[in-house]
Design brief:
With 710 residues, the chain is mostly helical. 57% of the residues lie in helices and 5% in strands. It folds into 2 domains: 388 residues, no CATH class; 280 residues, Rossmann fold, CATH 3.40.50.1110. α5 packs across α6.
């Protein structure tokens, strides 16, 4: 008797549709900006197929082999996933700035442990990671969601079977399993609604907010298995055709109507999820009774054409390869979107790599007899993790050597330019000398402080007083026993200055406090919460607390250091951004800053506004880590005019309020140009925040400008 085949070509066509939607969206075709919902299509398909397989096993034998299940998952997922992860690490080292390649190496370890979604949710909510290019391994988050789902779901089904066996009520009933997945999916959907509203970034990557999408596929699989086990009347053709058309329409509306600003997943994910479920239902349903009407529906036939089936066969490899190829190519060329010629080449490379991976990696592991042995198949988990770890460790060691950390390039000194008219202020003179050295194309000093590799993580410590977490306490720094008090107020730019304030306090005998909240500007203009653009309640509460606490302390000196974080909430409740509504934005920020100064001025003996660090077009550390013959001149950047003009607005507001203003620009730039290294110290950890090490170097000149030196 011939073995029953459960292969459905229409599902391969649906996979092809999903992966092509994802590719065109990620390639930058704005018409199909909502193509990211292809991932949601994959989730439903995955839930449907895996649960169908488990249900057949449960009904046939009354049990589910967890070892067999995880062996099949390992053979299906791991070989290609590990290969692409390793290739991405190697390509990142070869084509990206090495500082960025270090981050990709870190990502690869999370990817190998199927925790990529946790990693990228954390990075996405990290204030200091904003503006960084997306990791070429970011797309692995969806694989992590699937594997985390399938770590739990089969265990729940095994528990259900054990419960059914104890009842000994004849054939296994599928109804309890359907109720189980229904309840869990409803809970996940409700959580998705709340999390998408409150924290869109973490919601996007979370298994808890995505589980219902796989659950819909699982529920459909159980329902169809339950239906096929009994007798049912086949639906009329018009009904099946209508459901198929509705499924296509739902996905199409999402693809054409959604975009990067669409809150997701939330209720918006219902369209692609239910649309996919409809197409899966239609593909498994025959209309009519005993006539020619039993042929598949029009949509099913369309999805089953040979080309669609082939692309569906390659879909897993296509998904794995498309993102790193596109991202690395764009980052290497320094463009936001590949020009048409390069895009065509990139897409061709993606399809070639995918076809080869399917033929020589996916198929041999899935169908080869060697890996079909359960214990050997499960061993793929530690083997793939070990392979990625070996490449990660080796790659990191190569980067350390390539950056020339043991070189002998000297630091820049003012003595190198004795014949030039340099400032009498030694710190300003060193900035001038460093700018001149960069203009001459001097090599990057070898003994850098801080080191390039840890630059992105080199943020000023806050100890127990990270006010973003909701804590409201006092953490004294400097000379903690002194009666003289200095307070620093502001956002992440004030945080960058905090090591200078602490060092100044210790040297001048002052107790210091850092009232800083990253992303929350020291202005009474109401800010929009970064993730959902509503008025940011936590930020406003912090500002109120700062005013009350400063009033209680009545410090000798209050220093305000802040940027103007965009967007803010306008009078009508709509967000006003610096790029879209620059003049209105500046006007609102100016008024809000003046109001903030007016509140603080009566509460202290001396109120000072500290001018901001420059805004650079590129991160100096990333530039200097490109390898090859990069010199200081290649990373000498002009300060950004918009950020500088806003600082000048702050200066005007300060003077109108009778508040002193300290211009920090000469400590970073000379004649509008900002050198990447000052002496041997990297001044900027990213494009707008100072390194803690350079902040400490500025403690002494800052004390002089504040007239605090003895």
């Amino acid at each position: 008797m011939q073995k029953e085949s459960h292969f459905r070509p229409d599902i391969q066509g649906l996979r092809a549709l999903a992966v092509l939607l994802v590719i065109v969206a990620h390639a930058g075709f704005s018409t199909f900006a909502g193509g990211f919902v292809g991932v949601d299509v994959f989730f439903v398909i995955s839930g449907f197929l895996i649960t169908s397989l488990l249900m057949r096993e449960a009904v046939r034998s009354g049990r589910i082999s967890l070892l067999g299940f995880y062996t099949r998952r390992a053979r299906r997922i791991l070989p290609a996933a590990a290969l692409v992860a390793v290739a991405t690490v190697v390509a990142s080292i070869a084509f990206l700035p090495l500082v960025r390649a270090v981050e990709v190496i870190k990502d690869s370890v999370w990817v190998a442990a199927f925790a990529a979604n946790i990693r990228f949710a954390s990075v996405g909510t990290d204030y200091f990671a904003k503006g960084e290019p997306a990791s070429p391994l970011q797309h692995y988050w969806s694989l992590s969601v699937e594997e985390q789902y399938y770590l739990v779901w089969p265990l729940l089904l095994v528990g259900w079977l054990a419960w059914a066996a104890r009842r000994k009520a004849g054939p296994v009933s599928l109804s309890p399993a359907l109720v189980l997945v229904g309840v869990l999916s409803l809970a996940s959907f409700c959580w998705s609604l709340w999390a998408t509203y409150e924290s869109p970034t973490t919601a996007y990557f979370s298994t808890l907010t995505r589980a219902w999408e796989l659950g819909v596929g699982s529920a459909l699989a159980i329902w169809m298995a339950r239906r096929s086990a009994g007798t049912y009347q086949r639906p009329p053709r018009w009904f099946v055709e209508g459901v198929g058309a509705a499924g296509v329409l739902a996905i199409a509306v999402a693809v054409l109507g959604y975009g990067p600003d669409t809150p997701f997943p939330g209720y918006q994910a219902l369209l692609p999820v239910l649309g996919t479920a409809a197409l899966l239902y239609v593909g498994g349903t025959r209309a009519g009774a005993r006539t020619a009407e039993e042929r598949p529906s029009s949509v099913t036939r369309l999805l089953s054409v040979p080309l669609a089936v082939v692309i569906g066969d390659w879909s897993y490899s296509l998904y794995l390869w498309h993102w790193p190829v596109l991202r690395i190519a764009e980052d290497h060329l320094g463009v936001d979107r590949l020009p048409l010629g390069q895009l065509v080449l990139a897409l061709a490379l993606i399809f070639v790599l995918s076809a080869l991976t399917y033929r020589f990696v996916e198929e041999p592991f899935r169908r080869g007899e060697l890996w079909s042995r359960p214990r050997l198949g499960v061993a793929l988990y530690p083997l793939s993790l070990a392979m990625v770890l070996v490449v990660a460790v080796t790659g990191r060691a190569w980067i350390d050597r390539e950056l020339g950390l043991d070189g002998d390039n000297p630091a820049i000194t003012t003595a190198d330019f004795e014949g030039r008219q340099l400032s009498k202020d030694p710190h300003v003179a060193l900035v001038q000398a460093s700018t001149l050295a960069a203009e001459q194309g001097r090599p990057i000093p070898s003994d850098l402080t801080p080191g390039l590799l840890g630059l992105r993580q080199d943020t000023a410590p806050l100890g127990d007083c990270d006010y973003r977490t909701g804590v409201r306490r006092l953490c004294p720094n400097g000379d903690v026993d002194s009666d003289r008090v200095m307070v620093l107020v502001g956002d992440s730019h004030a945080r960058a200055w905090s090591p200078a304030i602490s060092a100044l306090g210790e040297a001048e005998g002052m107790r210091t406090y850092n009232f800083v909240f990253s992303g929350c500007s020291a202005t009474r203009a109401v800010q929009a919460e970064p993730q959902n653009l509503r008025p940011w309640a936590d930020c406003e509460d912090f500002k109120d607390w700062v005013v009350d606490t400063v009033a209680d302390l009545h410090p000798d000196v209050v220093v305000v250091a802040t940027s103007a974080v965009s967007p803010i909430v306008g009078p009508g409740g709509e967000p006003v951004g610096v790029l879209d509504d620059r003049e209105e934005f500046r006007s609102l920020v100016r008024a809000g800053f003046a109001e903030q100064l007016a509140e603080l001025a009566p509460l202290t003996d001396q109120l000072v506004v500290l001018g901001n660090t420059p805004k650079l077009p590129r991160e100096p550390g990333v530039c200097m880590s490109q390898g090859g013959d990069i010199t200081l001149k290649d990373c000498l950047f002009k300060r950004g005019p918009v950020a500088h003009s806003i600082q000048m607005d702050f200066k005007v507001s300060a003077r109108e309020q009778g508040v002193a203003f300290v211009n920090a620009a000469p400590w970073f730039c000379y004649e509008l140009m900002c050198p990447p290294v000052i002496g041997s110290t990297i001044a900027m950890r990213d494009s707008e925040h100072m390194t803690p090490e350079y902040a400490v170097e500025l403690a002494e000149p800052l004390a002089r400008r504040l007239h605090l030196t003895g």
